[in-house]
């Protein structure tokens, strides 16, 4: 009976989950070529094609679909056996995620991270990007996912971030009056983008709603009280982009970056899984 190579099975599961050889390689910290070789060896070992690959799509074959759950069980048993031998206390992983970056996919991302390494004790902190970056620099966070701040060029780029002016369809702006603006807090970098753009365009504005978190700002926008700047992907349901209608200035794009100080191999592997999953969710949401 053929025996299974753990890393080849792990490569197969990553390809199946992420539907991409490239993203699977990122998640496992390997090259795309190495991932392809591992999959080919696994298929040769069991004598069945597991993945169907075309120039546009990566999908499970019929045999791959049957094998996938068993492959997960195999990896879980392997990892559980190793974990049982480990005498170290659970590793603590403090992750900061910017409030304007975290989207509806956040629970799925954290669940995927936990499934990858159950021995990792995950603690999550939601704040604005500037606050999280300061905390990271002070050593209070192991990693953070934030909007790039100012001219700081370090960090791993996860995706671009595009902003827009959003308001309720029934929002009314009276000519000659300052634009009513809702924002997160005075220290929020996204707020700075909005106010700087308005000042440079010579448009008067006033803050009628400040602070309370992103959900509170979204509520103010949905109620028709004010305009707010949002990532185009995370605008409140029902809100519309009104920049062109009100002749508001174009907003500069930014980038979502990952900062990390993790050095041990297991934690780095977990972080690669998180980064790959984040890119995958962003790619899917961008295609809708």
UniProtKB/TrEMBL annotation:
GO terms for molecular function: DNA binding; DNA-binding transcription factor activity. The keyword Transcription regulation applies. Pfam families: HTH_1 (PF00126), LysR_substrate (PF03466). Keywords: DNA-binding, Transcription, Transcription regulation. InterPro entries: LTTR, LysR_HTH_N, LysR_subst-bd, WH-like_DNA-bd_sf, WH_DNA-bd_sf. PROSITE patterns: HTH_LYSR. Residues 4-61 form the HTH lysR-type domain. PANTHER family: HTH-TYPE TRANSCRIPTIONAL REGULATOR LRHA-RELATED (PTHR30579:SF7), TRANSCRIPTIONAL REGULATOR (PTHR30579). Belongs to the LysR transcriptional regulatory family. This is LysR family transcriptional regulator. It comes from Methylocystis bryophila.
């Amino acid at each position: 009976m053929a025996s299974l190579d753990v890393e080849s099975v792990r490569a197969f599961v990553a390809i199946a989950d992420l539907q991409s050889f490239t993203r699977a390689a990122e998640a496992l910290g390997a090259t795309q070529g190495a991932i392809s070789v591992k999959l080919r060896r696994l298929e040769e070992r069991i004598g069945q094609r597991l993945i169907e690959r075309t120039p546009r799509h990566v999908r499970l074959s019929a045999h791959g679909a049957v094998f996938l759950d068993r492959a997960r069980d195999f990896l879980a048993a392997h990892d559980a056996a190793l974990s049982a031998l480990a005498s170290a206390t659970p590793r603590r992983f403090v992750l900061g995620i910017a409030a304007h970056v975290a989207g509806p996919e956040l629970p799925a991302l954290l669940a995927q991270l936990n499934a990858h390494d159950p021995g990792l004790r995950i603690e999550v902190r939601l704040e604005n990007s500037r606050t999280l970056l300061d905390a990271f620099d002070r050593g209070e966070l192991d990693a953070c996912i934030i909007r790039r701040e100012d001219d700081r060029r370090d960090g791993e780029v996860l995706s671009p971030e595009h902003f827009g002016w959003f308001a309720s369809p029934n929002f009314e702006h009276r000519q000659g009056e300052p634009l009513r603006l809702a924002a997160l807090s005075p220290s929020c970098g996204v707020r700075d983008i909005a106010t700087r753009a308005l000042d440079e365009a010579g448009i008067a504005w006033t803050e009628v709603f400040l602070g309370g978190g992103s959900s509170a700002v979204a509520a103010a926008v949905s109620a028709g009280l004010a305009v707010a700047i949002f990532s185009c992907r995370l605008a409140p349901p029902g809100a519309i982009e009104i920049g062109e209608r009100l002749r508001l200035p174009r907003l500069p794009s930014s980038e979502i970056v990952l900062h990390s100080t993790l050095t041990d191999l297991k934690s780095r592997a977990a972080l690669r899984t998180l980064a790959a999953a984040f890119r995958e969710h962003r790619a899917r949401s961008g295609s809708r």
